[in-house]
Specification:
alpha/beta, six-stranded mixed beta barrel, rod-shaped
Length: 234
């Protein structure tokens, strides 16, 4: 039998007749004391378990929060890495495009330089040939002043070539007609014109008896190529 109120149980009896009822034995006191001890221990154990459970819950919550924060940090790091990779790819693409454009510009410039050098060489060759044949040209011009010869006639528009020489000139082989020679050109289409030699061209190497007449594109004869009787008039 357990006694919940130990003070009542161990109180000394006030009446000898009731001593058997209210006065506990030593064995009863021990049992009550043990019971109270067990109750206190159980209470302490329950409190300890509650504290442990609370601590465990807090730890689990902290772990969950930490895990969430770690996941957020991982996602941010992955996004930053992807953005850096994308930026690097875009920069590499821009660099490649800039390099290709620079190479194209360099190639175009080199081509222009080669073309300019080739043109300069051709002009130098023409001038050299003209100087070497000055005497012969003079004799040919002198003899040509009294005779006529048939020439092949082609046409070009100086304005299209960016020249400002106008339409009063004609390109010829300078060994046949030196610069400044005045020519009367009677063309096969019945038209007669007068032109002054002021230029030459690569055609003069292969056909010294061809003249390239300055003429507006809109007025060039439909045949394109004509023949003409050419006479030196001055």
């Amino acid at each position: 039998m357990f006694f919940t109120n130990l003070n009542v149980v161990i109180a000394a009896p006030t009446d000898q007749a009731n001593a058997t009822v209210y006065y506990p034995s030593k064995e009863s006191v021990k049992r009550v004391t043990l019971a109270r001890t067990l109750v206190l221990e159980e209470k302490q154990t329950a409190q300890a378990q509650e504290r442990i459970a609370h601590k465990t819950a807090i730890t689990a919550e902290q772990l969950a929060l930490q895990k969430k924060q770690d996941e957020i940090a991982r996602q941010k790091a992955a996004a930053a890495k992807a953005a850096a990779a994308k930026k690097a790819a875009e920069e590499a693409k821009k660099a490649a495009a800039a390099k290709a454009a620079a190479q194209q510009r360099a190639a175009a410039k080199a081509a222009q330089q080669r073309a300019a050098q080739a043109a300069a060489q051709r002009r130098a060759a023409v001038q050299t040939a003209a100087r070497r044949t000055t005497t012969t040209s003079t004799r040919t011009t002198t003899s040509s002043s009294s005779t006529s010869r048939t020439f092949k006639i082609s046409f070009y528009d100086p304005a299209v070539l960016g020249s400002s020489m106008g339409y009063g000139g004609v390109a010829a082989n300078l060994s046949v007609f030196p610069r400044g020679t005045r020519l009367r050109i009677s063309m096969s289409n019945g038209q007669t014109i007068y032109r002054t030699v002021n230029d030459t061209g690569t055609f003069a190497y292969s056909n010294p008896y061809q003249l390239d007449v300055a003429w507006p594109n809109s007025q060039i004869p439909a045949a394109g190529i004509l023949s003409a009787t050419v006479t030196v008039v001055g």
